[in-house]
Automatic annotation (TrEMBL):
Name this protein carries in UniProt: Cbb3-type cytochrome c oxidase subunit
Record flagged with keyword Electron transport: yes
Subcellular location: Cell inner membrane
Transmembrane segments: 6-28, 57-79
Cofactor binding summary note: Binds 2 heme C groups per subunit.
Biochemical pathway: Energy metabolism; oxidative phosphorylation
Cofactor(s) needed: heme c
Similarity-based family: Belongs to the CcoP / FixP family.
Domain Cytochrome c: 150-230, 237-318
Length: 319
């Protein structure tokens, strides 16, 4: 935070505290021109308003709140660039990236600092406590863990904490996010492949029109052919024309008969799994404008042991 912004923050916080205290004092001392207990001249539904002082318990709580705020701001960060007399911080702010956090030098700075780096301490404590447990699970195969109820429960919790935001709490995904329980896998559904996908992430990309010389007026015919591959209702005559468009080069990724290619992450067009929707409009939009999607790599975020457990949970969903 630059100096000017820091001064503005300090001024605003101080103004709020001083203003709150002044308002409280004014409310306690001001008698509104009336004696205590005297009628204020207002009657509502037979209830008369009288001039009574603020409840003492309420006034004391307000004073305590202001004093607590002052003490907190003195002890902990909160006033612009002032770090507080305890020099406390919730995390090691010297670590600016995951890559840097791996460096021993950055870890040494955090450990040797006089700061009370709460987050680092809690993470170290958690690693000491749970690290051996995760390591023991990681020593077992994914297939073995998928049959272990305790391992599946831990894997499910990790999944809900880190993966459910995209794939849903039931792992059924949504538009643009793969369903993990339908048996359809872009890159393959073996234990090793699932683990690799989570560890290193995936980048999926289909260029507009597949990067092929496909005219806009040819797209409807191509859509009908794509729908025919999965046995859906389609216009047979248009599908025949669409097959010719498909053979311009779509087969290079999706296969000669639309079976897909796990090596490329190219989806099968013969099943009923549609990542971006299977309506005619959605399929046409995918062909015309292309699609791109990215799944982040979790290796550096969660570590290999936790990813191993998540992989076993995901694998178990299709058993």
């Amino acid at each position: 935070m630059n100096s000017i912004l820091s001064i503005i923050v300090i001024f605003c916080v101080a103004a709020v505290l001083v203003g709150s205290g002044a308002c409280l004092i004014w409310c306690i001392k001001d008698k509104m021109g009336k004696e205590e207990g005297e009628s204020m001249g207002h009657v509502f539904d037979g209830i008369e308003e009288v001039n009574n002082p603020l409840p003492k318990w309420w006034s004391y709580m307000f004073v305590i709140t202001i004093l607590f705020a002052v003490a907190y701001l003195v002890l902990y960060p909160g006033l612009g660039n002032f770090a507080g007399v305890l020099n406390w911080t919730s995390a090691n702010k010297q670590v600016l990236s995951l890559e840097q956090s791996k460096a021993q030098a950055a870890e040494a700075v955090a450990e040797g600092s006089t700061k009370l780096v709460q987050y680092d301490r809690e993470m170290a404590h958690a690693e000491d406590r749970f690290g051996p447990i995760f390591a023991a699970f990681a020593a077992r195969s994914i297939e073995d863990l998928a049959a272990d109820e305790d391992a599946r429960k831990i894997g499910q919790r990790l999944f809900l904490q880190n993966c459910a935001q995209c794939h849903g709490s039931d792992a059924r995904g949504s538009t643009g996010f793969p369903n993990l329980v339908d048996g359809s896998w872009l890159y393959g559904g073996t234990p090793e492949t699932i683990n690799l996908s989570i560890l290193n992430g995936r980048n999926g990309f289909m260029p507009p029109k597949g990067g092929l010389p496909v005219a806009d007026e040819e797209i409807p015919d191509l859509v009908e052919y794509v729908l025919s591959l999965s046995g859906r209702d389609h216009d047979a005559d248009a599908a025949v024309k669409g097959q010719g468009v498909y053979m311009k080069g779509c087969f290079a990724c999706h296969g000669m008969s639309g079976e897909g290619n796990p090596m490329l992450g190219a989806p099968s067009l013969k099943d009923d799994a549609w990542l971006y929707g299977g309506s005619r409009a959605a399929v046409a939009d995918s062909i015309k404008n292309g699609r791109s999607g990215q799944m982040p790599a979790w290796k550096e975020i969660l570590g290999e042991d936790k990813v191993h457990l998540i992989s076993s949970y995901v694998y178990s969903l299709n058993l």
